[in-house]
Amino acid sequence: xxxxxxxxxSVKRKNKTGIWIVIIAVxxxxxxxxxxxxxxxxxxxxxxxxxxxxxKGVDISYYxxxxxxxxLSEGLSFVYMKATEGSSHKDIRFxxxxxxxxxxxxxxxxxxxxxxxxxxxxxxQNYINVVGKWDGMLxxxxxxxxxxxxxxxxxxxxxxxxxxTQLQMLLDELEAYYGCKPVIYTTMTAYRxxxxxxxxxxxxxxxxxxxxPVFSGRNWCFWxxxxxxxxxxxxxxxxxxxxxxxxxxxxxxxxxxxxxEE
Length: 262
Prior knowledge:
Shape: globular
Order of helices and strands: HHEHEEHEHEEHHEHEEEHE
Strand order of the largest sheet: 1-2-4-6-7-8-9-10
CATH topology of the largest domain: TIM Barrel
Largest sheet: 8 strands, mixed, barrel
């Protein structure tokens, strides 16, 4: 009799174990399916998570074409527009975009696309020459990311120390001219491979179109949460527009503006 009772208890334990294995397997499969949908953009998790931030904006370039600023600015608080790239390139619509944006109530800023192939000092001078200063401008932003050709996939072969040296030079030159630390815009990949543990005293603008980014011991101030937004008010070759949020209130955003300029 005792032997049969022991066998019954053993069967019960095995059944319970089997049930838990099935439950865990189903849960893991469900999570895997969920995150697959997030990364395939079938579930717009980032867009949902961004809803809690009230200070919204966009970043633009010549790709957005002709912009009707009163229309585009509806519901937005800030805009960053591409101004320069490398040591000599200027966005062909920068002056037109700047003039139009300054006619609205938007906080307006300009960003520079950082090149791995030229001096940080000459890149800073290009930005300064093109952008200049205006009262209430948002602090300069520097876009640091991998770009065409080898830089898309072979970033492990890059001279990271030299890139950081030239980036620091660019940031120092801009800070000396504008009197404030520039914002660094970057992707998650570039952050992990080039910036993590470095430049921590600079405000961070992070691109992550999958979910709200979280960093250990560091906060972002701007978040580009969508690269396929569609708004009214532009008619360029690119139908999408980048959507951003600011981590804070409008009063907090004011701390990222430069006043006292002509």
